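Thread: Modeling a multi-component assembly for a lab meeting

Hi all, long-time lurker, first post. My supervisor asked me to bring a structural picture of a complex we are working on to next week's group meeting, and I have zero experience with this. I have the sequence lines for every component (390 residues in total). Could someone generate the structure of the whole assembly? Inputs are pasted exactly as I received them:
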Amino acid sequence: MKIEVLGTGCATCKTLYENVKKAVEESGKVADVVKVEEIPKIMAYGVMSTPALVVDGHVKFSGKVASVAEIMGIL
Amino acid sequence: MLKSFADYIAFSTLGLVPGSRFGEALDFFIYDTLKIFLLLTTIIYVVAIIRTSFPPEKTKCMLSHKREYVGNVLAALLGIVTPFCSCSAVPLFIGFVESGVPLGVTFSFLISSPMVNEVALIMLWGLFGWKIALIYIGTGLVVAIVAGIVIGKLKMEKYVQDYVWEMQVGTAEIVQLSFREKLRYAGTYTRDLLKKIWPYVVVGVGLGAFIHGYVPEDFLVRWAGPGNPFAVPIAVALGVPLYSNAAGVIPIVHALMEKGMAIGTVLAFMMAVTALSLPEAIILKNVLKNRLLAVFFGIVATAIICVGYLFNAIL
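Re: Modeling a multi-component assembly
Sure thing. I ran the full set together rather than chain by chain. Output:
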């Protein structure tokens, strides 16, 4: 599974990244978590409000920080 | 009811003397803090629920290929309900212009969105009353619409950074939230926002209470009253570096108004605090060349100064 956290580097994006890492750890799934900061890559997903969560190429949500429990529900 | 509660705490429980400076300042502080937090919690929650129905992706579709005038008005109105954070300004800007939203219409949105925001409105409503809050919304929208139309007329597309036009923008599936998810989103959003702004509110109200109790009446009439023609531009210039502290700035401004600051100057200052900021300018520099950035700041600042003079003259 490939998980991408899209964000240009603001505080909320970092929080989401940390929450995703925790969620992956707790769920015990094998996943590659990467932080995407380049504007062209973010735009390619059509995301206009950051941070956003992309799992295997699908945008799951954008413009909010989800809790660890919420992210585990998505994975 | 809140007033009697504040009186009870300050004068009965703590035994301060009504009419004494410290007693009055503390009474004022308790009353304003309670009122503002009640208003903030309720209204931020309600606005957050409404916002879940207007993700930026949907706003973009509604604005793409709209003509000027109609597009500018619609963009300014959507700016109120579409969630916006200056850290998303770059993807938002690119998403808009790439999908065919005219440049001037995009600017109407970018100006209205941070300026006509719920925190500023609640603080104005709570401290100055609903009339001033409505005047603020109305003139804020006019500033956003007019500035957007002027930028559109100037045909400044070539002053957008070149890479913006070559960007490939995908289409995101808009994730539909159920009503329960919307409520949960609104709850988290309200909690996070309150967590972020409460210290500013407390410090702002505290300073306001101090000014209320200790600064003599008419202190500012000479400097910031309607008679000083330089008060409005100076207030606008002071507002720029105070970005994102609307919650803390408004209580101070409210107390200053009691001491003689003119209402037009107050409105202009508030608008400058929310609409113009250095961090936003730095972020927008990623997508705008210097000339367009300067034009954007210049036009918005001029429009805000006009608002200030207008209300100083008529109110």
